[in-house]
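pinned: reference chain
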Amino acid sequence: MKKVLTRKALQEKMLESVDYLVDIVKTTLGPQGSNVIIDHSMFSPFVTNDGATIARNIESEDAVVNTILEITKEASLKTDEVVGDGTTTTLVLLQSILHSSLNLIQEGMSPMLLKKELNLYLEEIIRKLEQEKILPTDKHYQSIAYIAAKDEKIGRIVASTFQQVKSKNAISIKEVEKNTLEVHYLNGYRCDIELASDYFLKDQKTLTLSNAQIIIIQDVVSELEPLSFLLNDCMANKKNLVILAHDYDENVVKELVSLNLENALTCLLCKITDYGMHQRKIEKDIEVLTNAKIVLDYYTISLENLGTIKEITFTQTDMILKFDKTSKINTYLSLLKEESKSLDSEFESDFYHKRMAMIECGLAEIWVGAPTKTECHEKKMRIMDALGAINSASGGIILGGGVTLLKIARELKEESLISFIFKEALASPFKQILNNAGLDVSSIQEEITKANFESVFNVTSEQLETREATSVFDSYSVILNSLIHACSIATMLFTTTSLVINEHVNTLSKTNEYTEI
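pinned: its structure tokens
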């Protein structure tokens, strides 16, 4: 048996659901936004002001509310997925658009006509938003990271780290026991490997070889004979040899270990632990970095296949190659950048950008620790927010604090009731930021209007600042995606007239607003 909720009753539930979600999340917006404590069934509760995390954890005992919540969350989480920030702004915009739209529908306006008109206005707003975009400077990056993290030190560290490695994918975050916030850089190309034997490390945790020769074999090393002339050459010339194979047999491992011990030879055998095309692409990267030639058939090895690496460091689970940039490497990097533009998968895009970052400028690891695990987790979330914001800002920025949207709202032509929907919505982030700081919205809005929207109110310093002097900027990409996704989900909700749910949920209200079918 199913239960059906229709028309006015459904609209009321839509507003109840959206308000239930947004009223919690929007309190975190802006520098003076508050935190939320989230319980976890398996771990300790944690404190966060990250809108995406809060939204994911909000549920209701009411099956109808829960169903609508999942649809509403999609708007915010999609923005977070695309640009790494903007969850709260998306929900604030969505709430305003939905409230105003449902008011017009209840007064008799066609939902489908309303949707069409809203999309036309959205196109105009996007054009105006594009005109406000400027390219960020180093100072802007630090400001955006600071605003996202709501912490000056975190903002400064994240900004400088991002500018050093030039990619979010090249930055990882590591929780440590001590109370610290520091950055460790790795200049080189790192990949996960499986070292064929611990004996190759010679009782050390790490082993570093200089000017080693390397051979890349996209085949199984099944016997030692095809490698014999390479091994003899290494012994005669006292050279180190790294064999990077697709796979290998255990009998070959034993023979190589014996050769190492008997002849004081340093010859390592390993394989990349990634699978499929990822393994092949990493091998291709190493081929270019070492000027080697990949061996496709194990039995056709020659000295021409050998490459040389300036420095290579091994542990049992990874290897790091250090190399000098060449024109060949720069050309290959340009090729990777072109290939990455056509990728649809976020997973593949991350894979490409991490490889490019390692080739271009290396990796960075931010170590974060705090007196308690709860505080450590909260600091880590701030760092992730700052990384997402600064990464999205690389495509352009706009004057922040909700001022740019407020300016666009004033510029919209008052030709119909539809313009009123967007005028209200575009002003809502600005108002919410000030409300969260406990400030007088109307007087500050009046001051900004007098300044022709070329000034912004800095909530932290409680001062009106000019465009040239302020540090308050937003990512163009974040605001753009927030608008698009808020409109998408709002129109989807108000053009829906029925909801069908399963009867078995005990928390359904037993009122006549539900119809059995």
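why pinned: The CA atoms of residues 38 and 46 lie 5 Å apart. The two ends are 6 Å apart (CA to CA).
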